[in-house]
Amino acid sequence: MANNNYVAIMAGGVGSRFWPASTENRPKQFLDILGVGKSLIRLTYERFLKIVPNENILIVTNKVYKAQVAEHLPELPLENILCEPSRNNTAPCVAYTAMRLRAMNENAVFVTAPSDHVILKEDAFLEKIQTAFEVAGKNDVLLTLGITPTRPDTGYGYIRYEAAEGEVKKVRQFTEKPDLETAKSFLASGDYLWNAGIFVWSAKSILASFGKNAPEIVEILEAGKDAYNTPDEQAFVDEAYPRTPSISVDYAIMEKAQNVHTIPSDIGWSDLGTWGSLYAFRDKDETSNVADGKIVIQDTTNSLIRGNKDKLTIVRGLDDYIIVDEDNALLIYPKSAEQEIKKLVKQLKDQ
Amino acid sequence: MANNNYVAIMAGGVGSRFWPASTENRPKQFLDILGVGKSLIRLTYERFLKIVPNENILIVTNKVYKAQVAEHLPELPLENILCEPSRNNTAPCVAYTAMRLRAMNENAVFVTAPSDHVILKEDAFLEKIQTAFEVAGKNDVLLTLGITPTRPDTGYGYIRYEAAEGEVKKVRQFTEKPDLETAKSFLASGDYLWNAGIFVWSAKSILASFGKNAPEIVEILEAGKDAYNTPDEQAFVDEAYPRTPSISVDYAIMEKAQNVHTIPSDIGWSDLGTWGSLYAFRDKDETSNVADGKIVIQDTTNSLIRGNKDKLTIVRGLDDYIIVDEDNALLIYPKSAEQEIKKLVKQLKDQ
After folding, report:
1. CA A198, A81, A5: angle at the middle one, nearest 5?
2. Which of B208, B241, B270 is the last residue of a domain?
3. Residues of B in Cβ contact (< 8 Å) with A341
4. Which of A54, A119, A339, B42 is spaced 20 to 30 Å from A76 by Cα?
5. B284 shares a domain with B148
């Protein structure tokens, strides 16, 4: 019996928020940001390998990262790395993936998941994905995993769902990054979930929804119907893909489609969006520091210290700091001011 | 007329107090510690070139630093680099230098000076040295430059001199590193100077004093009398020098000899002994920071920031810090605790 279940891992992001560890040449997904000896993309890939065979995993990335993907996932067939020639946000990316999978297997059902998030409760996560595969294989629905919120975070999108029996709930509404009061009311109401950008659908259903809600994307990419999954695919994509509109799948599809459902999931998820979120996520030492590398710490607390490899780092007398020492830059910054890092780096680049 | 005036620049020190910028492989004298584009040894050499010809300058260093000396002073004849095979402190070093110079010119008068100090008032300094050359060329005296003290520093040695007419004063007593009360009384009395380790004497006078006060050193090094200033010199020194006692010229000669004189000198001198002394010495920016490199400073004051070359350094929210980023180590340390750095580095090495 053919295995109709596939995974598409999205790995084209530039991860500008983890500067200076992440750079455009080496975005976050390729970093061992957790200090476990494996990059985030490797951890994501190994997680999905437990429920789908190697040949059913696709990586969708920008052309410039193809070699890095191959280096981090050497056992993945090279043809499973889909290369975007331009950055056009997630909607064209999902449509392209769906067309490639339809060409491989017209009954394909697939997960679309980020390559740079972390999931602590792996068993719970994989169970939810299995459920989603089954539901999406049998029904014309678009599924998004909804994360049980643990705090009134104002940096995430929220999903409001309809109370109902069973694991799968109909989505009523998406709300992007609410203010704090709104986020608190969402949390109190109990019928909101975080939108983690982890989707499950059949190729048929998502392409039908694209046809209805974003026909301009389908029109451009459908022209290469006969090229997908053949040696001609890359040449077609190189020519056509940059002409698609740059738009997110949330905006193009999810907020418009009527058949969107969610599966509430308590899976220990973090998008690791900032140094502060990484600090919050990691285990601390007895003085509440997270230190990676050859570090000597004196009289220092609540800090995230990421030393340069093979280099001795000595830190004394700091509280609540981020210290990141990379070959291209050294950052010594209060954790409480980290939202200014991205702005500052942009200013410096623009100079 | 032969030029009898010579300079011997001492460049064998390991400068462990400027860690991590200075290391045993690259001690302080080879660093551009002032951020002017030239190493301290280069600055010292160029200073003396204004009053003695190139061929009359010797560098006395450890064998392992010979190549670095030649690299920093490419116009210096290679035979002017005297190489100690072992670290035996300054007395054997001065005796060896004097014997080499005597072999070159029996009327040699020479300065012995550290390679890693800084002198702001160069004209005043060179005038004092000229005076010292004249006095030491005509009299059997041992001269040491005495620095007019500007603060009750407890890290320096003090010279007490006898009030007298003229520029040259007889030395009554040397006192090593006094406590603060004593240092204050020295400063108030007006007849104390700092001992900077800058000496002037004739080869004849200093060797006569060695014969009287440190005969064991003369006995060992005098055996090579016929080898000095010949191709056999290094082989002799390699064999004999390590057998000399390790002792400072201050202790072996200056504290015992009866013909020690000093020339009070106001020359803007600093031995640059610590990061703090470098900070004190350097010009500050409008927020009282000293920053070398490509540095972005926010809300940071009274700090010394030495960035790694070609690397961006971003520092925010610190006061009174030393930040030194070298390839082998990164130091982030309160300036007020800098005396602990040396101890800490020693502990780490001993592990």
Report:
1. 50
2. B270
3. 314
4. A119
5. no
- To the question of pTM greater than 0.90 for the whole model, the response is no
Q: How far is B305 from chain A (nearest CA, A)?
A: 11
Are A257 and A302 contained in the same domain? no
Question: Do B196 and B221 fall within a single domain?
Answer: yes
- Which of B316, B333, B348 is nearest residue A334 as measured by Cβ atoms? B316
Min Cα distance B40 → chain A (Å) is 26
The answer to whether the Cβ–Cβ distance between A337 and B316 falls below 8 Å is yes
Q: What is the DSSP string of B152-204?
A: --SSS-EEEE---SSS-EEEEEEE-S--HHHHHHHHHHS-EEEEEEEEEEEHH
- Domain of A96 in residue numbering reads as 2-270
Residue B106 sits in a domain whose CATH number is 3.90.550.10
Q: Does A344 touch chain B (CB under 8 A)?
A: yes
State whether B334 and A313 contact (CB < 8 Å).
no
Together in a domain, B104 and B27:
yes
Nearest-CA distance A35 → chain B (Å): 19
Closest CA to A275 of A290, A295, A296, A297: A290
Q: Which residues of A touch B341 (CB under 8 A)?
A: 314
B279-318 residues touching A, CB cutoff 8 A: 296, 307-308, 311-318
From first to last of the 351 residues of chain B, give the pLDDT tens digit: 469 999 999 999 876 778 888 888 889 999 998 888 999 999 999 999 999 999 999 999 999 999 999 999 999 999 999 999 999 999 999 999 999 999 999 999 999 999 999 999 999 999 999 999 999 999 999 999 999 998 898 889 999 999 888 999 999 999 999 999 999 999 999 999 999 999 999 999 999 999 999 999 999 999 999 999 999 999 999 999 999 999 999 999 999 999 999 999 999 999 988 898 899 888 999 999 999 999 999 999 999 999 998 899 999 999 999 999 999 899 999 999 988 888 888 888 777
- Residue B223 shares a structural domain with residue B153: yes
Quick one: DSSP state of residue B148? P
Could you tell me which of A260, A280, A350 has the C-alpha nearest to residue A322? A280
**Do A214 and A284 fall within a single domain?**
no
Specify the 3-state DSSP secondary structure of A191: coil
B144 and B167 assigned to the same domain = yes
Q: What is the spatial distance between Cα A182 and Cα A191, in angstroms, rounded to a whole number?
A: 13
ipTM of the complex: 0.78
B347 contact partners, CB below 8 Å, separation of at least 6? none
- Same domain for A159 and A60: yes
Report the number of distinct structural domains present in chain A.
2
